[in-house]
Structures are given as C-alpha cells and as structure tokens.
Amino acid sequence: MTSDRLHLPDAPTDLAARLAAGEAVAWSEPVSMTTYEPAAPDPYPMFLDRRVYQGSSGRVYPIPFTDRIAGEGAPRTWQAIHLENRWLRLMVLPELGGRIHVGFDKTAGYDFFYRNNVIKPALVGLAGPWISGGVEFNWPQHHRPATFLPVQTAIEEHPDGAVTVWCSDHDPFTRMKGTHGIRLHPDRAVVELAVRLHNRTSETQTFLWWANVAARVHDDYQSFFPTDVRYVADHARRAITAFPRADRPYYGVDYPARGDGRDRLDLYRNITVPTSYMVTDTRDDFFGGYDHRAGAGFVHVADRRIAPGKKQWTWGNAPFGHAWDRHLTDEDGPYVELMAGVYTDNQPDFSWLEPGETKSFTQTWYPIHGIGPAHQANDEAAVRLDAEPGRIAVGVCVSRPRKGAVVAVTLDDETLWTTTADLEPGVPLQASFDAACEPTEVELTVTHEGARLISWRPRPDHDAPEPRPATAPLPPESVESVDELYYTGVHLAQYRHPSRSPIPYWTEGLRRDPGDVRCSLALADDAYRRAEYAAAERHARRALERLTARNLNPRDGEASYVLGLILRRTGREEAAVDAFAKAAWDVRWLAPASLEIARIDARAGRLAQALDRAETALRLAPDDTRAHAVRTVALRGLGRTGDAAGFLAARLADDPLDQVAQALDGRTLACDARTFIDVALELAEAGASDTALALLAEAETREPTPAGEVRPIAGYHRARLLDLLGRADEAEHARKAARGAPAEHCFPSGLDDHDALRAALDADPGDARAAALLGMLLFDRGRTEEALECWELAIDAGLADPVLHRNAALATYAVYGDDDRIPQYFERAIALRPDARLVYELDQFLARRGVSAQDRLARLDPAIVLERDDATVVYCELLTEAGRHDEARSIMEHRAFAPWEGGEGRTLAAWEGLMLASSRAAEADGDLTAALDYVDRAIDPPPDLGETRIETAHPVRLLTRRADLLDRRGDHTEAETLRAAIPEEEPAEDDDRKVDYFATSLPDMLLFPPR
C-alpha cells in the first residue's frame, strides 16, 4: 500500500513563542500513523529454553508471544512526545518502549535518524513485533524485551532551560527499573540521553545496554569509526576481520577477492549479506554515519571507558536484505543500525548490577554537515583534516554556537593556517590551503575564549595486534582446574548462554573439591532462583563451612547474604537477620544486607531500627528505591511526618517516575498492572501493608494488556499478605476471587509469585487454578516433573482449560518422552479451543513419533492450519509429499508469508521442494518446458514468500537440475554454459554460528527437543 507521510504537529502557541525566543520545549500530542497491527498475543506460554536470540538466550516467558502481523495497514493514533529547539526536532513514542522515532535536523532539512513513516512491525523482537527506525534503547538484553510495550513518561523542564522526556518501566523478566531521559538544551544541537538502570531486586542481575540507532542508507552512505580502529568482530568475537578494508572472508563473503573498492565494510553498498561488526579496540569516544548525497550525518559521543560499544548491523544490500526492508516499511527503504553499547562492547556481552545498585550514564548524538566522516569528535565539535601532498583541507562542525572561535593548523610551533569565525551548528567551516608537510605532522585545533574545544593530529599507519577470537569452552570433564570450571560457569550464566548450562561446570568443580566456596555459592544462587530453597541452603551452608573452617570472620560476606535470602524466603526471619548482619561486615554487602534487615525490622514494627538500617543502606546506595520506601514508612510510623514529606518530595523531584514514591505520596499510578504488583510487594516489605493491599486490589481490576494478565496472581498475592497479617477470612475471600479471575495470558514468574502460589496450595491443596499457574512458573525454571504434577492435579480437579492441557502435553514429553497421554492432552485442548497452534504442535509431536505423512495430512483441517505460517508450511510440505502439488501451489502462490529474523529458509525450502516435485511430475508427463519453468520458479522465488536466498547460498541442486533438463531438451550448449558457472559445491554452512547467533526462528524442535 502507499503510506501517508508522518505529519509532525507544530508546537502549541505558548511553546512556539518560547521556541522562537531560543528555548527548548517539549509537549505531548498524538500523531496518526499508518500501522500494521500485531495479532493478539498467543494464549499459550512459550517455553523456549533452547531458543537463541541475538547470541544469548531467547527465553521469552513470561511475556505473551505474538507471531502474526496484519498484512494491511490502517491509520492509528499514537501517543507521542515532541521535543524541539532551534536546531533539532525529536519525537518519542511512549507506547513503543520510549524510543525516539524521529530525529530531524532543522538546519539541513534532514532526518539524521531513519524516519519510518509507518509502524510496520516484523517478527524480529524477542516477543515478536519489532519496528525499524529511530533509536531503540535496548536493555537488559537485545532487543529490548519491552520494545512493543508502553513506558511511563514525564516531561521535566530544567532551570537552565533544558527539557527532558523521562521514560521508565520495569523490565518484564527480573523487574529491574530502567529509566532513560531524552534531553534537548536551548544552547546546543545535541540529543542527550541520561540513563539510570536500577536493580530493585535482592539478587545480583546481569544486563546490557545498546542504543540502537537507525540511519537511512543508499550507495553513498558511509559509517565511520575512529581512525585507530584496525579490526572488527562479529557476535562473541567468533570471527575477526580488518577494518575498513576486510582482509579475509567475513560472513561468507570473500571481500579481498572483489577488488574495485568493494572490500570496504564502511560502505553499505558493499555488504550483501546480513552482517554485524563491532569495534574491538579504540582510544576514541565517537563514531557515526555520513550521507554523502545529503552532505549530512551524525556522530555519537560517549566515554569509551564505560561506553566502548560501537557496532554496525545491516540486513545487506541484496535481495535477501531488501525483502526484510519490505517487511519493515512501505516506502522508506533500507537502513543500517549504528549501535552504541554502554558497559558492553560485543553481543552477547553482559555486565553486573548488584542488589540495590544504580548505574547512571549519558550518551549524546548530534548532526554534522559538509565535512564528511569525522576524524575526531567530542561533545563540542567534530573535525576532519585531509592532508594530501602540498594541500590541506579542514572541516569543523560544532554542537553549539561559538562566536569568535579560532581554528588553526599548526606544524610543531609554526602556524600554517588560522582563521577566526563565528561557528554555528548546521554551518560547517570548510577551508583548504597549500602546505608542504607530512600529513601526520600537522595538528588541527579549535579554541574558544582561550579554551581548547578539540584537537586532532592524523594518526600514522600502524599495525595493531589482531584480537584473539573466542573459542567454545571445553566439556567440564576436560577442563583442567576447578578455578577454570567455576569461571566458565560464570561466563555461561552471565552471558545467558542458550545451549550450554553452567551447572555441569560447577558440579564438576564440587566433584573435584566438595567444599569449593565459589562453586557452592554459584549452585546455591542457581537453586535459590529456581525456588529450590532446601538445595540452595545446603549449598550455601557448605560454602560457609569452608569459609569459616579456620576464620570465623571471612573477608567475603556473599555466602552469609545468600543464606539470609534463603532464610527470609522460608520464614526464618530472625535467623535471616543474623545472616545479613554478618554479611554487612563486608562493605560490598553492607548496603543490600542493611536493606534486608531494615525490611524485616519494619515489618516487625521495629521502626527506629528499620530507619537506622535504611539510612545505612542509602549512604552506600542513595538511589535504592527500596531503602527510600522503608525510610519513608519508618519516618511516618515514628511520627516524623514532616521529615517523611520532605524526603518524599526530594525523591520525586529526583525521579518523577519512581512508582513506589508516587504510591507513598498518594498519587494515582499510571504504570502497567504488573508494576502495581511490584510496587505493592515493595511497600509490603517496607511495612506499608494497607497501601500494599489497596494496590493489589487495584491490580485485580485491571484489564489485560500485551504485557499479560495479572488479576489472578494479584489476588493470590493479596491473599498471602492477608494471611501474614492474620486476616484469614479475608485471605480466603481473596483466594476465591483469584480462582475465578480471568487467567488467559497470566504467566507467573519470579520468587514472589512462586511463594504466593505455594501459599495458596498450602491453604487449599485442591486449588486447580493455583496449581495450573504454579506449573507454568516451575516448567519455565526447568522443574519439569513438579510442573507436570501441578498440571495433573489441576486436570484431575476438573479445570477445563486448553492452555493447561497443552502444557501438560509438553511436560509429559519433557519428562517421559513419547507417551500416549501426549496426543490425548492435545486432543482435549483442541476440543476446548480449535486452534492452529495446538494443531501444529500436535502434528509436530506426531512427526517425531514417526506417523506417516498421509496420516498426518488426514488430521489437518485447512480451515485451521492456514491461520498460521508455520502450520501452513508444514501442510504444504505434506501435500507435496502426497503428490497433491496443485493444492500446495495454490496455497503458496496466494499467501504472503512473514518469516522470523534468523528463521529464514523454512518457507523457501518448502517452496523449492514443491517446485522440484512439480518439475519431476511434469518431466514424467513429458512436458520438459513446464519442468524447466518450475525449476526457474524455484531459483527465483516469488516475493510473497517473504524471503529469498542469501547472497552466499548458491542453489546448486536447482541449477544442476536445470542443466540436466536443458540437456534432455537438447539445449546442450546452454546446459554446458550453466554447468560451468555452477560452484563445485555449496559453501559449507557455518552451523555453529547459525545455531548460536541467528537461529531466532521458532522451529518445532524448541517445543519438542530431541531426547
């Protein structure tokens, strides 16, 4: 369809006057955009524990999964927040993860960030929908798990005239709080990003941060890295090549053999396959992209010591990549992603956030003009200095006005050229002059009012050491030392490895040294996170036994802290206080341990002690929202309401999107329902039980969203809290309400949900709804046998729920393998809801059982299976195998397929199989022309398949088949010419890379892994 162009509204009248006076302004005003709506999320939880996504685990639970997108667009109104100053115009979309959707350079009339004029998601995101364009802020993994979910927002106007749009949410997995502020200043043409990443949990967590910037590209677009970059790497440094000229094959493309400058990776036009490359080392803080046609581009600047990540990604300038472009936009064409990583320089590459810790940082982007790719840049300016024999050219762009700036080129102490100019954003200084000197001997300097803004001396060519590529870890039994076993396990856990577990490494470490502290603690932490509290306690106490065998006062308090968490979870709070108090002897654990003691004291009514401990925690972790809550509640309980009010006001001034502080201040929360539960539980831990109960009751009234359904679990949390308060009758009423609440898309997760559901089953062992919900949480945590027990209990109790029966089928397979109960469970689920996913999953189980294609085909109702692409592909494959080629062709020729990123090839393979089968049938009928036509259609697949062959994948068997048919038809010369052009063999597929980094599809093996 032809898309409407996105119309950006003018600033409201009062803000327009301020804008004209040179101020920065921000306002909220919706926009209408053609939108391709995602389908409703799948009602079934996706337990994709073997899925690989962006190099790490593609586990998606508990996010509801969406795997279909509308084929036609329609106008939709989106909430939008606009920022503008005299040079820049931005638009933020709060309903799509708080991304910057528009970055427009008013001075050049140029979108320096890729503007997608439609919202056209493709199946790229962790949970399905993902859109291209603008800037996506990815954390705690890539792509942002909440990329298609809303964030809470606030507009802040600063005393210096800057404006910030704050966006905040709790990540769907660990519930950490992420806040990013998009800021414009009145006196500079810079997009500033202020980020706070807060671990509001009691456990150590891992995270990454990549700002994913899109830039519109064409043959004359160039990405640029600092001039000292000599090598780049792909994901996990599995492959290395030189930069900018590749010196070896990379992603299957033999760049050095190309010639004619087609070995350069910084030019989009040269890259023909999906390709990532990340800087391995640089001493500079910038990189960016430049549009040579428009004479404009942008730079990103951030402190390389915490923000080392500099990356480019492209789908590739070839039919494969162009197919993905069509999936993601109507008319806005291809793009590259110039991604900036903080606390990370590769993918997958995760860092740590300790309990209560907040990491804060900034990133900046600004437009450049006229000068070409920058040679050096900082927050103040970007410069370029080209020196040829006898001639020097200078280019300077600034990010804010600099009247009377001095630009000089010097050779040692001699000034070769200088000028004084009023530098302005959008108005580059460009000059050239004659000079006889070596290029690396001259230096360009820009000063203003005596202060140096930037300087640059061209670097001489140098040989940098080649980075060492990563290698796969040895099997545990082959690892030499316990030390290496431990750290290999840490690596696998930290990087969320999708196919290798850390557990065998730590277990092997304990086999060799049964008292090893580190392996014991790692296993304690793992068991604790699975809610296997007894096992966790055994491991933690074994670690403490070794630690205190000779020294009752060990230097490291982690073991005592972990034990304290376990004791607290299992109701032994006074013993937990003792463990936390010992952990607090170690300053590294003083803040989190003090916080945990403060919470216990607050719940017990020991408010003075709680206040003291909370203030201790805040001295070391001043941004810990949990300690703020305890402090506020304790101050109020001690009658110091004025102090509490002042403290709360200061907290909200610092973070207007602190939902806990908002609740304590009596404000109505604007967050999602799951965050209501987060806030309620945090307040309950701080002793504010009445407020917590009110918030849980409010959560029980909230309708489901794409983030899921929370009403049942909110009810179970309220019941548990009431039980703890001794209000048994009210607790039973809450459990009854929870059992009757709508449960579709209710996917519990985390230890709090586990404990609430366990409490419900302790109170009523026959609670089928609690058992069904707990089973999902346990299955996701790998506790498959216990999950199956829960689901069997719910089924025996008579719960007629298709999700429950489908889940029981998966668990039965996981526990017992092939079992007659599996098809029975599926058939009951299908009887309750005739659903294409259920039919598809049953068919995939039957395929593994060895049921014939004919029998499988007889079970499939086209009216159902055609609802899904994956089921349709399987159905067409079965039709092909059954010789019903006309039916298969009729379906595949008239359907628009949408692949998953990384899962490309399945539909194409089905098409090739169908065309080859049709070709053989035509040949058998003596129609060689038709046989050739089918082969040609296989070689050149139709666009509606949604995918095509990657550039390096040569269809050898199809070309060979075509040559054979030409021979049979008598066209021997044409056949020999074709054979001479066919590669001797298909390139070997890099199975390891495909499995580890790009297998983001949903093949049926994820649901039924080989046993």
Automatic annotation (TrEMBL):
Span of domain DUF5107: 60-367
Bias-annotated ranges (Pro residues): 467-476
InterPro entries, sorted: CellSynth/LPSAsmb/PSIAsmb, DUF5107, TPR-like_helical_dom_sf, TPR_rpt
SMART domains (UniProt xref): TPR
Pfam families: DUF5107, TPR_16
UniProt keyword annotations, A-Z: Repeat, TPR repeat
Protein name per UniProt: Tetratricopeptide repeat-containing protein
Organism field: Glycomyces harbinensis
Lineage: Bacteria, Bacillati, Actinomycetota, Actinomycetes, Glycomycetales
